[in-house]
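ugh ok fine here u go
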Amino acid sequence: MEQARFSHAYIVTGSPDKTEDAARRLAAGLLCAHPGPDGAACGDCAHCRKLRRGIHPDLIVLARQTDDKGKPKREIYVDQIRELASSAPVLPNEAARKVYLIREAGTMNPAAQNALLKLLEEPPPFDAFVLETDSAAALLETVRSRCVLRSAGEGEDAPPAEARELAERWIDLAAAGARVSLISFANENAEKSTAELTDFARAARGLLTDMLCARLPARGLSRPELLRLVELTDRCAEYLRFNVSVKHVLGMLSAETVA
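structure:
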């Protein structure tokens, strides 16, 4: 049976009422002994049963601390991330990996995000990170670039081949600095649906993330250029999520792809 392919780090975005459930389902797939090809947990293995009971030792949830009145504090602090990092090298108790689920990850202050970045850059091979937030823009660009971006409700399935081909072409045009061709690219794809362009943005971000992590050649693009393109694909996906027109998003891409 084909096995699901997982990344070491994810950002799950969406409305607050959906992200917690989506992040937990993703974490369940990461811990499951027999996940499906789409990354979904089987629901029957020992890990899934323990997750349902809330007693799995390899799911570590980090959230804002509470004050003496029981109210959540404004931020996730650097000391919390340092404590997380100190446990990261410890082997999993039962599953093949440990999963760190960070609730409301956008509330991490800059020091906390930078501390997490060090861990995302060189994670232990048996650790995975799921960052839950209502807006990826609340996270540092360098943190976002190390993670796979997922919208709440989105499956683990890879983007369609057409979307990947379109993403490959866009990245090639960016690497070549082909401003005129980028305008043609926008015009040629102006009739695509929001779903099709969302798949394009997802495919492009995945390719750029692989380049940043040296899993794919960077095609002559420098690290700052790759980070800027990642930020652009995140903006593209965010605009589409808020129903900005496809033509407007493509216009932004054609104007801002080449600095």
